[in-house]
Amino acid sequence: MNLIEKAVSEFFKEPAVDAVDQDAAFLRAADQPVGGEYPSPHFTAKQHASLDFGKLKQMGMVTPDEPSSRIAIELRHIKSRLLSGSIDTMNVLDHDHCKNLIMITSSRTDEGKTFLAVNLAINLAMEVDRRVVLVDTDVAKDNVAKILGIEAELGLTDLLVTPNQTVLDALVGTNINGLHVIPAGTGMPNVAELFSSQRMISLLEIMARQFADWIFVFDSPPLLAATESSALARHMGQVVVVVQEEKTTEKELLTGLKQIEFVKNIGLVLNKSLDRSETIYYEQYAKFRSVRE
Questions:
Q1: Total Cβ atoms within 10 A of residue 76
Q2: Is 174 helix (H, G, I), strand (E, B) or coil?
Q3: Which helix (H) or strand (E) is 266 found in, with range?
């Protein structure tokens, strides 16, 4: 039994805490709209970046010119579970709203969450007939822009504090067809408050409803390092927690999971597994819960 299996067994010894009902507030979020227009199928992003595939490969990233690399094949295990029976059947008005909003996080720093978020977004854009948006919500690190070599005038925080800015204003198009990025934006001292604000709720609602055929992948701060992740998780359709083998302790993982125990769909990814034969994505907690009950 590995770390994830032990943690899951321990986590469900006690009934999960009921989620705070956020649906009413979420659906009222249009009171303070952010970018309320429906996207044109032929829109052009106002910002653009050309990704260096050679540098990305050196960092172990999946790239369109090598669609059958080992990392691409491993990502398909994760992608199939995230997409299966969720995006295509999404109804944003029911309890399972926001299935197109996927948050990637970890318990602690340096477990590979940004590596997974970037690779997953690229892989989805390569193989799924939808627009994919990689959103950097780890403002303190701003690693997505650094990894992809993106320099942009606007980012997420700018979108939240600047009136009349829209989702489309902050998008950065890339030379990977279908892949767009929203960088973290300008560093600010009140990020936690921004992410808990009505304006952020409004922005996420627009992503879920008006951009419902797009997929948004959020690179989130570690659960034990910042409160922003817990605030964001309340409005995500799915949360994926990255666990690095032989680094993360069971206590750290359980403590991190307690921060988001209200989330209905949580998945776990075992990073840098010594056993390359095992699937690195573990079933959603909802399935573990059903077995337990």
A1: 12
A2: strand
A3: strand 266-271
- 269 in any annotated domain: yes
Taking the C-alpha atoms of residue 53 and residue 229, their distance in angstroms, rounded to an integer, is 30
Q: Give whole-number Cα distances, 188 to 221, 228, 229, 247, in Å.
A: 15, 13, 16, 30
User: What is the residue type of 62?
Assistant: V
Say if 129 falls within a structural domain. yes
Q: What six digits make up the tokens of 237?
A: 């359709």
Q: Where is average pLDDT lowest: 9-18, 21-30, 102-111, 207-216?
A: 21-30
Prediction pTM value: 0.81
How confident is the model over 48-76, as pLDDT tens digits? 999 999 999 999 899 998 877 888 887 88
Q: Is residue 253 part of a domain?
A: yes
Q: What is the pLDDT of residues 38-49, one digit of tens each?
A: 454 456 788 899
CATH number at residue 176: 3.40.50.300
CA–CA separation, 76 and 2 (whole Å)? 22
Among the listed residues 245, 174, 187, 201, the one whose alpha carbon sits nearest the alpha carbon of residue 2: 245
DSSP, collapsed to helix, strand or coil, labels residue 18 as coil
105 touches 221 (CB < 8 A)? yes
240 SS3 class? strand
CA dihedral 187→114→59→216, nearest 10 degrees, is -100
Q: Three-state SS for 194?
A: helix
For residue 10, the model assigns a pLDDT of: 64
Q: What are phi and psi of 241, to 5 degrees?
A: -105, 120
Q: How far apart are CA 284 and CA 293, in angstroms?
A: 15
Domain that holds residue 195: 3-32+44-292
- Number of domains forming the structure of the chain: 1
Residue 183 falls inside a structural domain: yes
Residues 41/178, Cβ–Cβ less than 8 Å: no
Asked if residues 280 and 256 have their Cβ atoms less than 8 Å apart, the reply is no
